Amino acid sequence: MMTFTVWDILRNLLLAARWTVLLSLVSFLGGGLLGLALLFLRIGKRRAGRLFVQGYVELFQGTPLLMQLFLAFFGLGLFGIDVPAWLAAGLALILWTAAFLVEIWRGCVESVTRGQWEASASLGMGYVQQMRYVILPQAVRVAIPPTVGFSVQVVKGTALTSIIGFVELSKAGTVVTNATFQPFTVYGLVALIYFALCWPLSKSSQILERKFNVAHRHH
Amino acid sequence: MTYRFDFSWLPLYWPVILKGLLTTVELILVGALCGVALGVACAGVRALGPRWLRPVVAAYVELIRNTPFLIQLFFIFFGLPSLGLQMSELQAANLAMVVNLGAYSSEIIRAGIEATPRGQFEAGASLAMTRFETFRHVVLIPALQRIWPALSSQIVIVMLGSAVVSQIAAEDVTFAANFIQSRTFRAFETYFLSTALYLLLALALRQALRGVGSLLFPRRAAR
């Protein structure tokens, strides 16, 4: 029987962790773009758009990410597409991420006080100008800490894609365990790698929040 | 799209789904009760526990909050037996959910405790209450009341996260769906149904938690 050193295990896990990072980036950026589009529907004037986004959010926040992954994996297949795991994983994670980001960002836009809308309207600004010059610059400041905080959820969410067969850090953990019979070491290391990815994000979210809160007190 | 939906397997397999549903409900009941209790204990330790214990609790909370639930589950079910801690699938699933919710809820409860005005602690002390009595009677209940909505959403998130316990063969809703689709090859229909069940479960759980909230904190409801 072959013996594996901790370094062998760690090296294989780190190689797989690249896919976790890549998938997280794609999901976060894709989800961010979709979330932005949904945000404008959600805070827009059209009732149908608002209701659609409300339903979308309810659906994706009210069902397990794992089920969304399964439905993407098997659902896309119904259209006669041969679905590779990375496609289903990316699609489901983007849709899921967007559902959370749109709610976070809506809260941030709504945290800008009514007076700001009225003041900018009284200066003769139209809707687009109000958004561009008054509301969004203020909302973005409030939005950054929770958005960075949510990126941690995205990184952790990618772990579920191992279940539909996408080989990233978690799947590599299972594969390496099956080869080495050292689940304690392997899953311990996997957890530490996830921690190394997520903890800086959590920490910077906290620091950003403190920083922006200080700025707020001077208003 | 020429696909034809086929739910004809439903009459044959509904007992499997029902059993899965009961397991998921059991998991979330145990998880929510013990998890919140653990969260209260951890928040209490961080507020007035012994100094050496506080960083230990902080490390636990950070470790759990920054790693995926799936890995925590695998570590408990596959990793711990090498330390001699063997447990059944259901026990491992329960333990993982308690440990997970414990960390998240302790952070939420801590925020509620920190929002308590200093005067409340001082008022407790001036009534000759010990620090623990002040915490128990003066600080904790209003703190829980303050953060109940956030705690409720976290419990719903943990319930939805419980779908992955099927991966260690704990027989929940997802496990039932996996089982049925492997027998019927009707993957989309089974996962569609189980997704709908989770959605209903999430809505019901949210309502139930709102009810529990108004039972636990009647003064707020009366106002």
UniProtKB/TrEMBL annotation, chain A:
InterPro entries: AA_ABC_transptr_permease_3TM, ArtM/GltK/GlnP/TcyL/YhdX-like, MetI-like, MetI-like_sf. Its main location: membrane. Keywords: Cell membrane, Membrane, Transmembrane, Transmembrane helix, Transport. PROSITE patterns: ABC_TM1 (PS50928). Pfam families: BPD_transp_1. The keyword Coiled coil does not apply. CDD domains: TM_PBP2. The keyword Protease does not apply. It comes from the Bacteria. Residues 17-205 form the ABC transmembrane type-1 domain. It is found in: Cell inner membrane; Cell membrane. Belongs to the binding-protein-dependent transport system permease family. HisMQ subfamily. This is Polar amino acid transport system permease protein.
UniProtKB/TrEMBL annotation, chain B:
Gene3D superfamilies: MetI-like. The keyword Magnesium does not apply. Residues 21-209 form the ABC transmembrane type-1 domain. The keyword Transit peptide does not apply. Pfam families: BPD_transp_1. Its main location: membrane. CDD domains: TM_PBP2 (cd06261). PROSITE patterns: ABC_TM1. The chain crosses the membrane at residues 20-48, 69-87, 147-170, 191-209. InterPro entries: AA_ABC_transptr_permease_3TM, ArtM/GltK/GlnP/TcyL/YhdX-like, MetI-like, MetI-like_sf. It is a multi-pass membrane protein. Belongs to the binding-protein-dependent transport system permease family. HisMQ subfamily. This is Polar amino acid transport system permease protein.
